[in-house]
Amino acid sequence: MDSRVKPQRRRRPRGSLTREQVVEAALQLADQDGVEALTMLTLAHRLECGVMTIYGYVDNKEDLLDAIALRGLADVRVPRPLPRQPAAVLVAWGRALRQTLIEHPSLALIFLSQAVMGPGIFRGIEALLGALSRAGMPPDTGLHAIYAVVIYTTGFVAWELPRTRRQPVSVYEVAWRREFAGLPIEEFPLTASVLDELPRVAGLEQFELGLAALATGLARGNR
To answer: Which end of the chain is more exposed for a tag (fewer CB within 10 A), N or C?
Structure first.
């Protein structure tokens, strides 16, 4: 008989978890390994509890992802006080949101896959609408301007992450050059002249270019 005894996996004592702890662990797991790697089983292993224990704190995967997104958004830090010009408010908002989406790379994919709502979002809207109203932009116009920036920033970060965040920029640059090297250069003289610029289309400069144009256009539309 085999005398070896399989060690029992340590389990967390019953009642020792909170919903906040479950959500925090899920956010860390999703950020580290990707949203696709986040399952109730992997989360249970991370928390050293049973899968059914997780369901005592969240209803289902959608509820968990919603909670993760709301928790991540709590890390958004806009400058205080906010600027006094509408375009500057929108730029500050976009920059702060992008930074948080980069710090929590799971969030952009969640926002693109499901609607996320909660008290924290309403508090953020209220604060931004207040700043925009003081700058002369009415609430209805301000709301659509806020979400124009949300949509642009979320989409940009989802574009940026696999190109220049999950791999070095140098790898992205080499990929562009490798693909172009197989083409007859005489057919693409203009593209050849900007080949050095192509790796920069998924970085900060490109983001700032689009954000500035968007914010300026939204502010002008308010006049």
So the answer is: N
In CATH terms, the fold of domain 19-73 is: Arc Repressor Mutant, subunit A (1.10.10)
The fourth-level CATH superfamily of domain 86-221 is: Tetracycline Repressor, domain 2 (1.10.357.10)
Domain residue ranges of the chain, discontinuous segments joined by +: 19-73, 86-221
Q: Tokens in use for 71?
A: 């928790």
Number of Cβ atoms within 10 Å of the Cβ of 154:
19
Cα 223–Cα 143–Cα 154 angle in degrees, nearest 5: 115
Name the least confident of 9-13, 149-153, 179-183: 9-13
Contact 91, 148 (CB under 8 A): no
- Contact 109/158 with Cβ under 8 angstroms? yes
CA distance 213 to 223: 16
Where do runs of H (alpha helix) occur along the chain?
19-33, 40-47, 51-54, 61-73, 86-103, 106-113, 119-134, 139-160, 169-181, 189-193, 204-221
pTM higher than the cut 0.70: yes
Mean pLDDT of 103-112: 94
CA distances 58 to 32, 54, 66, 100, Å, are 21, 6, 10, 24
Q: What pLDDT digit, counting tens, does each position of 20-71 carry? A: 999 999 999 999 999 988 999 999 999 999 999 999 999 999 999 999 999 9
